[in-house]
Amino acid sequence: MGIARGQGWGTVGALPAGGVVVSSDAEARAVVTGARQAGTEVPAIGLLGGDLCRTLGGVGDEDRLRRGPATVVSCDLGSALVDGRLGYFVAHLVARRRGWRGGGFVAMNAAWLGTWNLGPSAHPGDGWLDTYHARLGLRQALAVRARLPLGAHLPHPGITARRTRALQVDLDAALPVLLDGEAVGPPARSLSVRVEPDALTVVV
């Protein structure tokens, strides 16, 4: 279960029959959510873009996904209870205010959040989520943001970093929550996150 240090990961292949090609993390999340709600198996997902695609080294070539040679990997999936509402994420969960005022909480399955290398040690096939609970003043937040593109923001005394399979989080204030970049419900005070190892077949 999950990749081990020094172990090879993935095989050369192509998107299998019934696979779905998506262009973003949000589209991949929609595929997962639709399958889970229908009680069916999640199809293989071919990635043309998004933060999970970037983490996996995808190049956005649909012909390569469909015909090969592409890379086929087994990826983890994040699930979250947001004030009791169940959702999924392929790349990340983010709970924060605009501008990260007062800090926030993130759970990373992918390494990237846009142009930020927010989870520099996160690996989508290792069976863990990398979580960060930040409590930062304005000056600290600005200093951290300047380091995010290079993934050089850690360690930091205002950020609690933890690798976990499951975690219950009580936020300091009600915060908007985004799963793979999409807002879900009203601001939340309580979160539960969990990793589902090897839940997805992904092609890049």
Reading off the top of the CATH hierarchy, the class of the largest domain is best stated as Mainly Beta
Low-confidence spans: none
- For the residues shown, what is the average pLDDT? 88
Task: Please give the share of residues in helix.
Answer: 10-25%
Order of helices and strands: EEHEHHEEEEEHEEEEE
Domain module count: 2
Based on the coordinates given, report the CATH architecture of the largest domain: Sandwich
Give the termini separation. 21 Å
Radius of gyration: 17 Å
Shape: globular
Q: In DSSP terms, counting alpha (H) and pi (I) runs of 4 or more, how many helices? A: 4
Describe this structure in words.
The structure is a single chain. The strands form two sheets. Strands 1, 2, 3, 4, 5, 10 and 13 form a seven-stranded mixed sheet that branches. A six-stranded antiparallel sheet has the order 9-8-7-6-11-12, with no helix packed on it. The protein has two domains: about 10-75, no CATH class; about 80-195, Tumour Suppressor Smad4 (Sandwich). A hairpin with a 2-residue loop joins strand 4 and strand 5 (about 85-90). The two termini are about 20 Å apart. It has helices spanning about 25-40, 50-55, 60-65, 140-145; strands at about 10-15, 20, 45, 70-80, 85-90, 90-95, 105-110, 130-135, 160-165, 165-175, 175-180, 180-185, 190-204. The chain has about 200 residues and is α+β, with helices and mostly antiparallel strands. About 15% of the residues lie in helices and about 40% in strands. The model has no long low-confidence stretch (mean pLDDT about 90).
